[in-house]
């Protein structure tokens, strides 16, 4: 779906001529257009291939001149459509090998997949209907005149009914990264009165420079100021324990008897 992807991206960019007020506005427009092509091409692929997906896995040989697709390996828009492989290759400082079958379109830079993935994350957090409504409001505002990056984020936040600067600001900054990991997991046998019991301790840590907090509000005492992350532990007896986290404190731990 190389050609379809590039055409959809170019058409989507035509919808946002007013988003040229500053560098952030242009990068938001490019990332939004790349996000939108992922949705459009997903529908085209599903219709053409009679299967859900965004594109086929593929590589390029002979210096990138000859594409070869593996049609039995379909990829969805979350893995391929939003440019995640290209972004990972860029952040690791190396070119992917073998070369992916899809060629990035003109104007595709490091910020484009970062912002596109941010829009994809926002879709998962607030839902497509809410995001679609916010984009309608943005289109109406952009039709009235040029907008800066800050204008775009404020408009989307107001239309969605919640602060979105916390995710778009790091997406526009190449020095920022989201990186979380399970740091440790331990289970200790103890005693609960007349019966044995176990205490499991799980520690999740923030290793990146950006915080996946869900809000720009800072912590105030016991109030975390955000709880976008959920740490979930499932035990063999099907008991499930969850804890919400603002993604800022390092690390977050909870003991479960």
Helix content: 40-55%
Q: Can you count the beta strands? A: 8
**Helix and strand element order:** HHEEHHEHHHHEEEEE
What kind of assembly state do the chains in view correspond to? single chain
**What's the CATH H-level homologous superfamily of the largest domain?**
Neutral Protease Domain 2
CATH topology of the largest domain: Neutral Protease, domain 2
Amino- and carboxy-terminal Cα gap: 51 Å
Compute the number of structural domains: 2
CATH architectural designation of the largest domain: Orthogonal Bundle
SS strand fraction: 15-25%
Secondary-structure-based class equals alpha+beta
* Biggest sheet architecture: 3 strands, antiparallel
Strand order of the largest sheet: 2-1-3
Overall, the morphology is globular
Q: Low-confidence runs (pLDDT<50, min 5 residues)?
A: none
Please give the radius of gyration in angstroms.
22 Å
The averaged pLDDT comes out at 81
What's the number of helices? 8
CATH class of the largest domain: Mainly Alpha
